[in-house]
Amino acid sequence: AKAAGRQCARGFTPAMARALEEKSWMEAELRKALAEGGLQLHFQPKVHLRSGALLGAEVLLRWPCPGRGWIPPDRFIPLAEECGLVNAIDAWVLRAACAQWAAWRDQGLAVPGLAVNVSPSRFVHDDVVADVQAALTQHALPPEGLTLEVTERLMLDEAQDRRAVSQLSALRAMGVGVSIDDFGTGYSSLSYLRRLPVSELKLDRSFVSRLDSDTDDRSLTRAIVSIAEAMELNLVAEGLETVAQAERLRQLGCEVAQGYWLSRPLSAEAFAVWCEAVRDG
Ligand code: C2E
Ligand code: CA
Ligand code: CA
Ligand code: CA
């Protein structure tokens, strides 16, 4: 790649060559990690604020990369999307999450539900319905406990949109939940809420983090609470970091949250310990 870089047209700098090399190295490592069991799942509790009850957990992917430490998903998911690896990764996450959920159940630990992130491209190229059906059936898991989190990016492309709507409708009919992730940050129109069979909105962290200081964000949060109520959708606040934010959310009518104030994302082992501590008061 270095030699190729030198031969290239003017404007192709050594720094660009290095970036490209780094990218193809990371892509190869990521492929290897997926094939060889090098990816891990972490779990972040989703909690009912008033009662403190555990309602479920969001599954978050972790990649301990040899020689590089933990690479955050915000770096490797976009790379995986670019190189066409994200669908295979998300399919693995779904299977591994369901296997873990069943393992907890078999150990006597009742986890009410799991939420899994799904990239928009999966709804174009994959049969998500069949994959979900297979994962749930294999472990005899309740469809009502599973939620798929999708972002508003899903609605940007019309062809994608059609396939997504039919797959999400089939999933809702099975009882699986569909959540709009990062709600309030992406798309300019809310009309897709009429077309998409959605069961939950996730209030983006950017709203939650400014609840203390910004009255506009407070008004927007109140508006989103109203949308959720009017459309009979669950609402989950993400990125809850302080007791003051928790108090504000409760005042505004948002009952369910995730965030560092409740718990960081935890390894499977640590999550089980956390659940037992909550259960035993
Ligand atoms: P997301 O779906 O919006 O996930 C929430 C992110 O916020 C997570 O970052 C979580 O660790 C972080 N977070 C949770 N509570 C707090 C808090 O109180 N304060 C702050 N500052 N952050 C908090 P993470 O794990 O680094 O994941 C980043 C993004 O990567 C996710 O954003 C999601 O879009 C993507 N991602 C993670 N796992 C998967 C996956 O399995 N598949 C796909 N397609 N994307 C994934
Ligand atoms: Ca999410
Ligand atoms: Ca989110
Ligand atoms: Ca977010």
Automatic annotation (TrEMBL):
<feature type="domain" description="EAL">
    <location>
        <begin position="23"/>
        <end position="279"/>
    </location>
</feature>
<protein>
    <submittedName>
        <fullName>EAL domain-containing protein</fullName>
    </submittedName>
</protein>
